[in-house]
Amino acid sequence: MTPTSNGGDEQGWGSLVREVLIEIFQRLDWQDRLLAVPLVCKWWHAAFCDPLGWRCIDLRKWVVTKTFDDGCSSLVHPPIAEKLLPQLLKLATNHVTTICFPPGNTTDGDHLYVADR
């Protein structure tokens, strides 16, 4: 514990139980979870890599903003199997119980990729 200026004790995020961190991470959007969490500290990186945190993979919010030549932008679902799915299944190491695909944005290749693993 670290003493605070008001005389109390403060515990850092690194002192949270790994299961609590994993539960928090599962509630983050995919960008924060994949791009920010593992870079915070060694403890967060270890919790990020824990296969139990990847039991449920929800790809329904896996979208990016695409800007067109006319300046308009739109949310699009990038190809899943070639971009994200291999990385997530590697993190999960056979602990996946659920995968939620975006509606209308999956291919037979996405399903076959999962089935083969």
What does this structure look like?
It comes from Amborella trichopoda. InterPro entries: F-box-like_dom_sf, F-box_dom. This is F-box domain-containing protein. Residues 19-60 form the F-box domain. The protein is an alpha+beta fold. It has 2 domains: 1-49, no CATH class; 54-117, no CATH class. Helix content is 38%, strand content 15%. The strands form 3 sheets. It has a two-stranded antiparallel ribbon. A two-stranded parallel sheet has the order 3-6. A two-stranded antiparallel sheet has the order 4-5. Strand 4 and strand 5 (73-76) form a beta hairpin.
Number of helices: 5
Order of helices and strands: EEHHHEEEHEH
Strand order, sheet with most strands? 1-2
Task: Report the portion of residues in β strands.
Answer: 15-25%
Describe the main β-sheet briefly: 2 strands, antiparallel
Tell me, rounded to a whole number, the average pLDDT: 76
Query: Tell me, what's the shape?
Result: flat
Computed CA radius of gyration, to the nearest angstrom: 18 Å
Oligomer: single chain
Helical proportion, percent range: 25-40%
Distance between the termini: 43 Å
Total domain modules: 2
**Which structural category fits the helices and strands?**
alpha+beta
Kindly state the number of beta strands.
Answer: 6
Low-confidence stretches: none
Protein name: F-box domain-containing protein
Organism: Amborella trichopoda
Domain F-box: 19-60
InterPro entries: F-box-like_dom_sf, F-box_dom
